[in-house]
Write a structure and sequence with these properties.
The chain is built from 4 helices and 4 strands; from the N terminus they run E-H-H-H-E-E-H-E. A hairpin with a 2-residue loop joins strand 2 and strand 3. The longest helix has 23 residues. It is an alpha+beta fold. Strands 2-3-1-4 form a 4-stranded antiparallel sheet. The protein has a single domain, classed as Alpha-Beta Plaits, CATH 3.30.70. It is elongated.
Length: about 140
Amino acid sequence: MSMVNISEKPIVKRYAQAKGKIFLKKDTINRIKNGQIKKGDPLIVAEISGINAVKLTHFLIPYCHQIPLDHVKIDFFVEDDGIEAICMVKAEAKTGVEMEAIVGVTMSLNTIWDMVKYLEKDQNGQYPFTKITNIHVTKKYKEEI
């Protein structure tokens, strides 16, 4: 097995967007909104973590090509029952950026979980309300330069 040979493919503008959601307790959501998380603002840290993960995708997924990224943006939408993350990635490359977008949204949500896990645990140390779900690519396109 080997990486897919993309040497003959043209460089084109590429865009991908992925999203996902972490479900959290109402109390946790309120503490996030009120700046009461011990480790700091989970959304700021999750944004940085997600962007960093996008840049490292080729290290995390063995057959992904290293891509010169042009733009990465991660947005969060705080809802009553959790937080939705959306990761957008742009590049001029020979291969797509959807894996980068998926990795970015996944790591962002993992970071939020890490920062609030002390609030989410029950008396047995379990997470009965916390879950990350519905991670998927919502948009993908390319256009010739």
